[in-house]
Amino acid sequence: MAQGCAHKTLFSNGSATCIDGLSRLSSDLSMRTALLWCFSGVLLLLSSGCHVLTPQPIPVDKYFTCDEQLQATKPVIERGREMPVLDTVGWIIGIPSKIILWDSRADRHYISPETEQVLAKYIDDNGLYHVKFRLNQYAPIQDWHRLRANKSVGWGWRYTLGVLSLAGEAILPGRLFGGDHYNPYTGTVHIYSDIPVITLHEAAHAKDFSRRKYPGTYGAIYLIPVVPLWHESVASRDVVAYLQYLGNPALEKEGYHVLYPAYGTYVGSAAGTFFPDYANPLYIGGILWGHAVGRWNGSQVNPETYRSVRDGDVMSPHFVPSPVQESTTVDQSLPIYENGAQSANAVSSIPY
Ligand SMILES: [Zn+2]
């Protein structure tokens, strides 16, 4: 569910075409050309203004959570114990992810304190104290308890898709195979990459699911082809808004470099469902498009003029994230996002 953006297989489907005649070749080529134009047109449309992931904070009135889940979450962030051999094998298995995102920190199986700090601040700013964040940790038994405690998701979903997702995590552990993701049935974020923006993206999924009255159904429809584009866009747009709120040009630049190709994998996969014979080139095309648009947007972030631009009309009021008012069970006043109200690398005071 809401799997990490790098959790895709680069060469998932064969795209070999059976060419048994000149006419077949000709029609195949014209089909390819038409498809290429069609796909290019869609990408061009998505790139209009070069900001398909326009900053849009997820509006939250309240979180649908429960006391049991909240109690089962302390501490909010946990780390797996060090296992150098296993993590080295995991690093190697994660090479395709590193290539897709063009970032060696993908599926690194080590999360630096700097990355954790950015994540902790996001948790703090959004009051996500009911979500467990496992940093390179394998804990299916504990997650089983979390699944049972997560009454905010209907039991019908928890004991079907929830059990299946948990079984998948137990049998194909991310600790070895990587794949940052959020599991809405256990209410747990699993992180294996040392990329702050990815941790924010997965946390944004948690924020998105937590505000929904029917998170199980929202998770189930993620399995329908093309639909994930919606979930992914909601999460990534929240991250872009948050990065702008932080006011850290380097982090915002990195955000574009990672979020766009990651989104491109979903665009490519969605296109591939319509043209299964061309699934692989479409998938790769989506990634390349993401890198191109991401680099372009990143190049527009100028550290020299950043502060003046972000403090100006560009940020206000459209990009200011909405305030998180309160959780249904957590009686606390949560900080309101205000542009420039806090420094970029403020140390979080999250109680974990
Ligand atoms: Zn995602």
Task: Please give a handful of descriptors for the protein shown.
4% strand, binds zinc ion, disordered C terminus, mainly alpha
Polypeptide structure, described:
The chain has 352 residues and is mainly alpha-helical. The protein has one domain. Helices cover 52% and strands 4% of the residues. It is built from 14 helices and 4 strands. Strands 1-2-4-3 form a 4-stranded mixed beta sheet, with helices on both faces. Strand 3 and strand 4 form a beta hairpin. Helix 9 crosses helix 11 and helix 9 packs across helix 12. The longest helix has 26 residues. The protein starts with 21 loop residues before the first helix and ends in a 42-residue tail after the last helix. The chain binds zinc ion (ZN).
Name the helix and strand elements from N-terminus to C-terminus, one letter apiece: HHEHHHEHHHEEHHHHHH
- What's the overall average pLDDT, rounded? 80
Q: Give the helix level as a range of percent.
A: 40-55%
Number of domains: 1
Note the total helix count: 14
Percent of sequence in beta strands: under 5%
Main sheet characteristics: 4 strands, mixed
Based on secondary structure, the structural category is mainly alpha
Shape: globular
Cα gyration radius (Å): 21 Å
E-strand count: 4
Report the bound ligands by name, code or SMILES: zinc ion
